[in-house]
Design a protein that fits this description.
Length: 657
């Protein structure tokens, strides 16, 4: 007699732990990381510091008790000490949290001894970077906010993150007070990178802590760590980040990621040579059929990079001679947070594959096989469950474009056992993607739905990352057109194969996925139910009210202040087609969402009420663009399953269990 597989609960989905901030020691022997809860109900999240052998030969060693938030570990040059951020109140006070919950810079030996508190600044420390060969640490410190209930005047004073240099002293001599870098003026520090010799810092700043939705600007500065003198190098591209220094045996280069052409399209790697009089940064990824994700600086060599390529992620190294990237390894699924030792031979990443959620892995990229070694086992509680089988999909759109995606079948079933009720769950972005990885998340609930007998289609339509810049640019000014055809063509394929029941189709998504669900029900009545999570309904209103206004205007083609309509954005806004909607819609949205404000959901809710369409409208108090609270995440999982269960029914595998 067979034993029925365990039925997963929403609590089991959200009550897990995930890794944060893995970092390889300079000598390549150790990896430090933080572990934190996937969700939380309290105002003060907690996380725990760990150290483990980079080759996986010994188990992880816990350095803190998890009563406070301790994160962003960074190794000292000797590979024996760690700097990290913590809201612990006093040195040695286990379980005590600072009253104002601000993080300060701490230091500890890799064996857990010698803990020291290095700062006590009022606003708290938000980032730090130890400098090679010195007792200096570059720190980013937040201004305290003393504005209280005073009126907020646009362009007026507001707290910023500022850079300073800190002499950390020694075990017998306390650290000095941080010395501010005043040459950056009132600009908000976003990211810093130290030249490997420790003498110069690259600093990326913005005019204010908030993205300017009309005229966003990212600027680059160089800071001399000896004198504190600042050199301004001017504006960078849209959303510039991930700066990495490298040397070509003659001069220093600084590479970074930015959107190309901006504010929309795909990311590119740009390279500049400070002080060379270079007319414009060189695009090192022009024409590639994959998309850069991150750069990782290497102290004694050229940078490493992560690239999205279809359903996989690749590790590359920059060739200093040709200034092109060479692939070192390919991993199915997700790789992120790439870090390396001084030589670049040993790396660590966070990875999620077909069978496991995010864990910390390491690899020797000097090994031609470059196998990933798993270093952590953070979610052993999931090992008792069975999971829906995945199939990698590859198909052609109606215009011949090559597309990919994933199919997840119900627990214990194969595609040949269909037809199943099918839920299509669209990813966010549009510059995002699905990877060949374990998908169990309140905002992307493929395995959750598979446990209820649904097949789940995870499409990667045009406009996403993983197929190069030209692929990403195809939706700019043409939202909803080709990408909807791509999704629809994939559903047709699954119906033709007998996997999907054409009479029991559902669609949903979060963020841009929610937008596409709203678009879908305004263009077809083939779906019996839809979930619109934090989706855009009116692009013109979003350009006027969302924090990424200029980007939204670029994607949709216009804003409402450009004269009397109709405007280009009207033709690509789901709300324009509300009169055609008849599919029951579950609308879910965070009350405090600044990316896609709640007004977008209210607009759809009122339109559906006006036309008498069956709908349910749910607002999560205090939530932003993603749901962080445990109770909100549980509610979203259960509500999503109940909505599809009400309108699609459930598959035979769910009922048999």
């Amino acid at each position: 007699m067979s034993v029925a597989p365990a039925r997963i609960t929403a609590e089991a989905v959200v009550d897990g732990v995930m890794p944060l901030d893995p970092v390889v020691s300079p000598d390549g022997r150790w990896v430090a990381y933080a572990a934190t809860a996937l969700s939380g109900d309290g105002p003060r999240p907690t996380s725990t510091l760990w150290v483990t052998a980079a080759d996986g030969t010994s188990p992880p060693r816990q350095l803190s008790d998890g009563a406070c938030r301790e994160h962003r570990p960074r190794w000292a040059a000797d590979s024996r000490r760690l700097y990290f951020l913590s809201d612990r109140a006093e040195a040695g006070e286990s379980g005590s949290v600072a009253e104002d919950s601000t993080a300060q810079l701490h230091q500890i030996n890799a064996d857990g001894s010698g803990h020291r508190v290095l700062t006590g600044v009022e606003g708290g420390v938000v980032d730090h970077l130890p400098l090679t060969g010195q007792a200096l640490v570059a720190v980013v410190i937040s201004d305290p906010d003393h504005r209280g209930s005073a009126p907020r005047v646009w362009g007026g004073p507001e707290p910023r993150d500022r850079m300073a240099l800190l002499d950390t002293g020694t075990a017998s001599r306390p650290a000095d007070q941080p010395i501010p870098i005043t040459g950056l003026g009132e600009r908000h520090v976003q990211e810093i990178s130290a030249r490997p010799d420790g003498l110069v810092l690259a600093v990326i700043t913005r005019p204010s802590p908030h993205l300017d939705p009309v005229h966003p600007r990212w600027e680059l500065h160089l800071v001399d760590t000896g004198t504190g003198k600042v050199q301004d190098l001017g504006a960078l591209g849209w959303d510039a980040h991930s700066p990495a220094w490298w040397h070509d045996r003659q001069r220093w280069h600084l590479s970074y990621l930015a959107m190309q052409p901006g504010p929309d399209g795909g990311q590119a790697v740009f390279d500049l040579i400070p002080g060379s009089g270079q007319a414009a940064p060189a695009d090192l990824t022009e024409g590639l059929d994959r998309c850069p994700l991150e750069l990782a600086q290497v102290a004694q060599g050229p940078p490493l990079a992560l690239f999205a390529h279809g359903l996989d992620t690749e590790i590359h190294r920059l060739d200093p001679r040709t200034r092109s990237f060479t692939r070192l390894a390919t991993s199915p699924g997700l790789l992120e947070s790439l870090t390396s030792g001084h030589t670049g031979a040993r790396v660590a990443v966070q990875a999620a594959n077909a069978t496991h959620p995010r864990e910390v892995y390491s690899a020797d990229v000097g090994d031609p096989a470059c196998p990933l070694t798993r270093l952590t086992r953070l979610r052993p509680e999931l090992e008792r469950f069975d999971w829906g089988a995945r199939e990698r999909l590859s198909y052609r759109a109606r215009d011949g474009l090559t597309l990919d995606g994933l199919l997840v079948t119900p627990i214990g079933a194969t595609p040949e056992d269909g037809p199943f009720p099918l839920v299509t769950w669209v990813h966010g972005g549009p510059y995002g993607r699905y990877m060949d990885q374990f998908t169990l998340d309140p905002h992307a609930p493929a395995q959750w739905l598979a446990h209820s007998g649904y097949a789940v289609f995870l499409p990667n339509p045009r406009g996403g990352e993983g197929h190069g810049q030209a692929f990403a640019e195809q939706v700019v000014g043409a939202l909803g057109a080709g990408e909807w055809d791509d999704i629809s063509d994939g559903i047709d394929l699954l119906v033709e194969r007998g996997v999907a029941d054409p009479d029991r189709l559902g669609i949903g998504g979060w963020s841009h996925g929610g937008t596409m669900a709203a678009w879908a029900v305004g263009h077809t009545d083939r779906f019996r139910a839809a979930v619109v999570g934090a989706g855009v309904t009116d692009w013109g209103m979003l350009a006027a009210t969302g924090e990424y206004g200029a980007s939204e205007a670029g994607l949709s083609g216009s804003v409402g202040w450009e004269g009397p309509g109709p405007h280009p954005h009207d033709a690509v806004s789901p709300i324009s087609f509300a009169s055609r909607m008849s599919t029951p819609v579950l609308i879910v949205h965070g009350e405090s969402d600044t990316n896609v404000p709640l007004s977008q959901a209210v607009y759809l809710h009122r339109a559906l009420r006006h036309y008498g369409v069956e709908q349910e409208f749910v607002v999560y108090p205090g939530a932003g663009h993603g749901l962080a609270r445990r109770d909100h995440q549980i509610d979203l999982l259960e509500r999503t399953r109940a909505w599809f269960g009400r309108w699609l029914g459930s598959g035979q595998w769910a009922s048999e269990r």
